[in-house]
Amino acid sequence: MKVAIIPARGGSKRIPRKNIKEFCGKPMISWSIVTALDSGCFDRVVVSTDDEEIARVARTYGAEVPFMRPASLSDDHTATIPVIKHAIEWLARHQKMPEQVCCIYATAPFIRAEDLQRGLQQLNSTGAAYAFTVTSYAFPIQRAFRISADEGIEMFYPEYFETRSQDLEEAWHDAGQFYWGRADAWIDEKMIFEPESTPIILPRYRVQDIDTLEDWRCAEWMFKALQLNAES
């Protein structure tokens, strides 16, 4: 059994009610739910939440909410892996043990069905523990610097000051959309950023963290631009 699990707690502080706030005409979480359903990858699409309103919205768009997430896994400090582990163990105890599980973030409006399909194919063909979305940094991280307390500049890696950008190794970061994984990897709480994982590479123009209101505005502009491009 293949299951999508969408973690969506109710206590977002920087953007209140972020998971169900309207994004380009629909509740934010709906974009993840509908894309998961449209992908054809999953036997079930489950939302893990501690919030009754989020649960109602999730059901409206076709997801299941078979349990309410406990408060102990719903605070600001709870990481993603324990939440997915809890959902898998609940399903195993009360219904059926899944074999492959995809964690999809509730705030991933740029997610595409074909990427989910590609992730599943890559998970199976490589034998990896996880397959997850990544994108490249726009500028070499070796040339990064900090601004000190007295507003001075300090390079993180001063040895690369005179190295040409094109001669530096490309670096990648988590795109924050989805994480396909084998159920035993989630249950064993294996780290995701490890050699046993395989990357699903996305272009930078389809990646946007949404942690602040500025992020939110940028994401809506990007989303609308992509829609216009698709329609032209």
Distance between the termini: 39 Å
State the CATH superfamily name: Spore Coat Polysaccharide Biosynthesis Protein SpsA, Chain A
- With strands numbered from the N-terminus, the spatial order across the biggest sheet is 4-1-5-9-6-10
Instruction: Return the string of H and E elements.
Output: EEEHEHHEHEEEEHEH
Organism: Marinobacterium nitratireducens
Protein name: Pseudaminic acid cytidylyltransferase
InterPro entries: CMP-NeuNAc_synthase, Cytidylyl_trans, Nucleotide-diphossugar_trans, PseF
Keywords: Nucleotidyltransferase, Transferase
What does this structure look like?
- The structure is a single chain.
- With 232 residues, the protein is an alpha/beta fold.
- It has one domain (2-133, 174-231): Spore Coat Polysaccharide Biosynthesis Protein SpsA, Chain A, CATH 3.90.550.10.
- 32% of the residues lie in helices and 21% in strands.
- It contains six helices and ten strands, in the order E-E-E-H-E-H-H-E-H-E-E-E-E-H-E-H.
- Strands 4-1-5-9-6-10 form a six-stranded mixed β-sheet, sandwiched between helices. A two-stranded antiparallel ribbon has the order 2-3.
- Helix 1 (28-39) crosses helix 4.
- The radius of gyration is 19 Å and the shape is globular.
- The protein starts with a strand and ends with a helix.
- The mean pLDDT is 95.
